[in-house]
Amino acid sequence: MIYIDRHFIENGNPTFIIAEAGVNHNGDINTAKKLIDAAIYAGADAVKFQTFKAENLVTEYADMAEYQKNNIGREYTQFNMLKRLELSFSDFMELKEYCKMNNMIFLSTPFDFESADFLNKIGIDAFKIGSSDLTNVPFIEHIAKYNKPIILSCGMANLSDIEDAVFAIKQNNNDKIILLHCTSNYPADTDSVNLRAIDTIRSAFKVITGYSDHTEGITIPLIAAARGAAVIEKHLTLDRDMEGPDHSASLEPFEFKFMVEKIREVERALGDGIKVCRESEIDTMKAARKSIVASRNIKAGEVITFNDLDFKRPGTGLMPKFYKEIVGKKARKDINKDEQIDFGVIQ
């Protein structure tokens, strides 16, 4: 069993929806608080940020990814870009307290050992490990030792990469694992999403599975929910036109709210899987189903043959499947054409 705060996360349970604020605060704590407010407004279960110190994360000469160059519209080194998007540890303490005051679960992805230790120290409920660290086994082992739930994104990965990461976690006596299928493009195109991989990951590793979405719009997360994703993560921004690497692949608050509402609708539609006649169907059943009726006027004492029977609406009488129980019996009384025949009128 995996609990994140008050939420029980399990395949088949209500979807745990994470509003990925990430670095969409653009390095400003007040914008970060507005993102928390937006996550609350949208009905997300948790809001998640990214915690790092640029000097611990990247070399000063590392180039930006192509999507980062395209989305920002200019070129820096990764170090310069990340330094502009960095919040301090004290900022994150304030954001965690702000979430607590507003009954919102605070999560953050650490990108270096120091940040991971800090998040553990302030009592984060679960750790998110991004796809970029899926093959960073020493880092994964370090976080696993905290013995807290780990949500691990699986972008840019083959099954063998995921297997190594899962093994590293379990070797450190931590089996609280949630794997998120992911395509690491921002935005990701529909043809690259491969949602059937959710089923593949669930089958291969026998763990809770979900989906981290980077497509535009809400269609793909809804399909993921319908396929049983236990966790769905989606980027949230205040304005897609803001400068930054992830805004263009994010939802604005009203869109995120609409997505949450539709995911909850999907969950209601999925139901419990037990096939029974629903109470709401009973009236339709009576009107639409058929009953056994007489195909002619039958006199009392006559032996009823199959040709004496017909099957017509409404479905308020004996169901047609019981016709063999009628054929060969005598009529107890006169039966008029189209009158329903049940066990009470035969002998």
Automatic annotation (TrEMBL):
Taxonomic lineage: Bacteria, Bacillati, Bacillota, Clostridia, Eubacteriales
Its EC number(s): 2.5.1.101
UniProt cross-references to SUPFAM superfamilies, sorted A to Z: AFP III-like domain (SSF51269), Aldolase (SSF51569)
Coiled-coil ranges (or none): none
Database matches in SMART domains: SAF (SM00858)
InterPro entries recorded: AFP_Neu5c_C_sf, Aldolase_TIM, NeuB/NeuA, PseI-like, PseI/NeuA/B-like_N, SAF, SAF_AFP_Neu5Ac, SAF_PseI/NeuA/NeuB
Sequence ranges assigned to domain AFP-like in this UniProt record: 291-347
A single BP term in Gene Ontology: carbohydrate biosynthetic process
Keyword Lipid metabolism: no
Keywords (A to Z) from UniProt: Transferase
Designated name of the protein: N,N'-diacetyllegionaminic acid synthase
Organism: Clostridium tepidiprofundi DSM 19306
GO molecular function terms noted in the UniProt entry: N-acylneuraminate-9-phosphate synthase activity
Source superkingdom: Bacteria
Pfam families per the UniProt record, alphabetical: NeuB, SAF
